[in-house]
Amino acid sequence: MADINSGHTVFLETFGCQMNVLDSELVLGDLRAAGYAPAHRPDHADVILINTCSVRQRAEAKVLSRLGELKWLKQRRPELIIGVMGCMAERDAEGILEQAPHVDVICGPGELGRIRQLIEQARGNGKAAVAVTRDQMRRVPVARRATNDGLEALDRSRRPAREGPLIQAYIRVQRGCDKFCSYCVVPFVRGPERSRPPAHIVDEAKRLADAGTVEITLLGQTVNSYAYEQDGRIIRLPALLERVHEIDGVRRLRFVTSFPGDFDEAILHAMRDLPKVCEYLHLPVQSGSDRILRSMRRGGTVGQYDELIDRARDIVPGLTLAGDFIVGFPGETEGDFQATCDLVRRTRYKNIFVFKYSPRPGTLAARKIADDVPMVVKRRRNHELLAIQSEISSDQNAALVGSLVEVLVEGYSKAAIKAQKMNQSQPTHLGWRSQTQLTGRTRGDQIVVFEGSPDLIGQLATIEVISTTDLTLHGRLAEAV
């Protein structure tokens, strides 16, 4: 295993969801602690890791394309270690090695605590080191399922993945999923639903707050299903939110992603009553058609979803919503799609994520239902749904002009970063493309850009909204909070 003076460099590229972002941060922090220095380009590294996603075929195709590009680098530098981590590694380790035999390490999401060992194993014997999980815990009640010791150790030993304070941070509160929606590969690649001990989560949050983290997001595949048995009682998400809310230094608290069928109204009361909990809810529904929801095995109806949204808005003032949708699911007619459009129009999300259906090997839909919606139709429906949401977002943002919003300042805007790179200088004022243009997010997760001092990064600031687009609020500094 690499020691603290290893002298190795690592480049890590991440595809996919917030869970993968967190996994990459933990792995990179672990490698840094062992003496690995982060590399900013793959050709500057002696270890290249790709953290993968299997939720859609396009994500896997991107990984295979990247591995094809790295083949030539491996030929020039045979000592280079190339590793594939995450969901694609778990789903199809054999297929990856068949299509990319130059890969040295295959590591599923349940084995990330062994990544250093696998790298050294591959370096030592010149053969591919493979670690995937075949979990057999599904018959155990959710609240009593033990966490993976190796993964829990990785989470608890959390080390900085880069220099400087981590303004925003994810904390994993739950692993895996038990829903088995007919289109989804997640239960097969991340295993059954397991909740982490609340004491471990609170300890992690305290350490992050002590290190300067201002905003914490509790992360789970179905985070509102969090349930941990302790001293004969079940601790659920509202109680967990209360415990993290009490931590000094934490200024904001979020949680993602929620499953509509498991949503307890007590969560909404916690959002209303705990001042640090942001008024933002990511609540995927996937379709506005009951017929398609049944085929997806989502376990609820459009009417139930509408009622949940109404209750949420009634209980939590100023609530903003985000949603996920799949277009072109097998059997989806124009009528089904129009029902989805109608749902988006009446729900009036802040933003939505729209995906074109692609069959995932091993899922019920891939095995039992023909993928009968042509790609040209999927693309059209994707564009139409996004256009509807763009109009809604434009209207909602325009209504904020003249208002004051609380913003957590995250850093320089994309325009400022680009200008800095072009000028290779310290931040200076360059008109409307100022290198002092900063960016941040409101409690409702709206993106805001404004002019301000770099000293504001990591702080809460009050911004007056002066103009908007469908994706961004433009403002000016009112005062620091």
Protein model, in words:
This protein is an alpha/beta fold and 481 residues long. It contains 16 helices and 21 strands. It has helices at residues 18-33, 57-76, 87-91, 93-99, 115-125, 149-156, 186-190, 198-210, 237-245, 265-273, 290-296, 302-315, 334-347, 364-368, 375-398, 414-423, and strands at residues 9-14, 37-38, 47-52, 81-86, 105-107, 129-131, 168-172, 174-175, 194-195, 215-219, 227-230, 233-236, 252-256, 280-282, 320-327, 351-356, 404-412, 437-442, 447-451, 460-468, 472-480. It has a six-stranded parallel beta sheet with strand order 2-1-3-4-5-6, with helices on both faces. It has a five-stranded mixed beta barrel with strand order 17-18-19-21-20. Helix 5 (115-125) links the parallel strand 5 and strand 6. It is globular.
Helix/strand layout:
Elements lengths: L8 E6 L3 H16 L3 E2 L8 E6 L4 H20 L4 E6 H5 L1 H7 L5 E3 L7 H11 L3 E3 L17 H8 L11 E5 L1 E2 L10 H5 L3 E2 L2 H13 L4 E5 L7 E4 L2 E4 H9 L6 E5 L8 H9 L6 E3 L7 H7 L5 H14 L4 E8 L6 H14 L3 E6 L7 H5 L6 H24 L5 E9 L1 H10 L13 E6 L4 E5 L8 E9 L3 E9 L1
Parallel strand pairs: 1-2, 1-3, 3-4, 4-5, 5-6, 7-10, 10-13, 14-15, 15-16, 19-21
Antiparallel strand pairs: 8-9, 11-12, 17-18, 17-20, 18-19, 20-21
Helix pairs in contact: 9-10, 13-15
